[in-house]
Amino acid sequence: MDRKKVTVVGSYNVGLFLKGSTFPGPGETVIGDEFKEGGGGKGSNQALAAAKLGAPVSFVGRIGQDEFGRYALRLYDEFGISKDNITVDRETHSGVSVILIDDEGRNMIMVVPGANFRLSREDIDRASGLFRESCIVGFQLESNLEIVEYGIAQAAAAGARVLLDPAPVQPLPVELLSKLWCVKPNEHEASAISGIKVTDCASAVAAGHWFLDKGVTVALITLGSQGAVLVTREEESVFAAPAVKAIDTTGAGDCFSGAFMAAMATGMDMHRAIRFANCAASISVTRLGVIEAIPTLREALDLLEAPEAGA
C-alpha cells in the first residue's frame, strides 16, 4: 500500500488538569497542588502524537465557536495537521474534559462531549478523499457510535487500514468489528468488550482471539507497564515496555495509538511499530500533561534503539 498519510476521525476536548495527593470521595472536597489547561480529546491527542512522531496527518472533527476551539486550530497549525475537515459548530461548545491526577499518576476523567457528538454523516462524506489517500484511519468512541460505525464503513470501503481505539468503552456491534484492520484496547476495554477478564499477557492473548473471531485482522492489547500483546492469525507476541517511573498516565494510550499509526504509515514493520509505540507512551508517562508529554521523534527513536527498550 503506497499511502503515507494518517487520518484521525474523532474528538477534541479542552483538558482541565487538577493534580493533588489524593482523589476526593463522593461529597468530599480536597485541596490540589497543580492546575493546567491544554488541548485534549482522544482523537485530537492521537492526531497530535502521530504528527509529532513523523507522519503527515489530517483530522476530521467538530469544535465549538469558542476560545477552546480557537486554541485547537492554533494547535493544529503548530503541529502541521490539516484542518480542512474540521467543522466549527456555532450551536454548541467545544468538548471539555476534567482530569484529576493523584500522587501515583493515576487519573479520573469526566468528559462533556459538546460539538464532538454533532459529528455527522456529511462530515464523514466530505472526508472520503482523505480516506482514499490514507494508510491508516483512526477512530475512537468519544463521538456518536452511529457516526463512528458509518465512518469506519466508509474508510474500510476506501481501502484504508482502519484502527479503532475503543474508548470510552461501550458494547460494539459485530458488524463494526468485522470492518476493522486493528482494534487497540487497553486491558480494561478488552475485558469489557470481550467478557474475558484481562489481567496479564495470557488473558490478553485469549481476548485477542475473541476479537479475531469477530473478524478483526489485528488485535493489539495494551497492558500499561506490562507492555502490549499482538494477536493475529499468524502469531501471538508480547512486547515489553521500557521500565520508567510514571508520574501521569493521562493520554498514554492515545500517545501509543498515534505513535503506532505514524510508525505504520511511515514504513515500519508491525513489530518495530509496536516497540516504537511502547517507547513513545513510556516517555509520555514520565511527564505531566498530554500534549506536552508526547516525545519528539528523536526521543522515541533513541529509546527504541536503547538496550532497555524491550522486545
Write a concise keyword list for the protein shown above.
single chain; 311 residues; alpha/beta; UDP-N-acetylmuramoyl-L-alanine:D-glutamate ligase; nine-stranded mixed β-sheet; four-stranded mixed β-sheet; 36% helix
Number of helices: 11
| Strand order in space, largest sheet | 5-4-1-8-9-10-11-12-13
Relative helix content? 25-40%
Number of strands: 13
One letter per element, helices H and strands E, the order comes to: EEEHEHEEEHHEHEHEHHEEEHHH
Helix/strand/pairing class, anyone? alpha/beta
- Could you please say which CATH topology applies here? UDP-N-acetylmuramoyl-L-alanine:D-glutamate ligase
Radius of gyration (CA) equals: 18 Å
Provide the domain count: 1
User: Could you tell me how far the N terminus lies from the C terminus, measured between alpha carbons in angstroms?
Assistant: 26 Å
CATH class: Alpha Beta
Q: How does the major sheet shape up?
A: 9 strands, mixed
CATH homology superfamily name: Ribokinase
Tell me what portion of residues adopts beta-strand conformation. 15-25%
Mean pLDDT equals 94
Shape: globular
> What is the second-level CATH architecture?
3-Layer(aba) Sandwich
Detail the poorly predicted runs. none
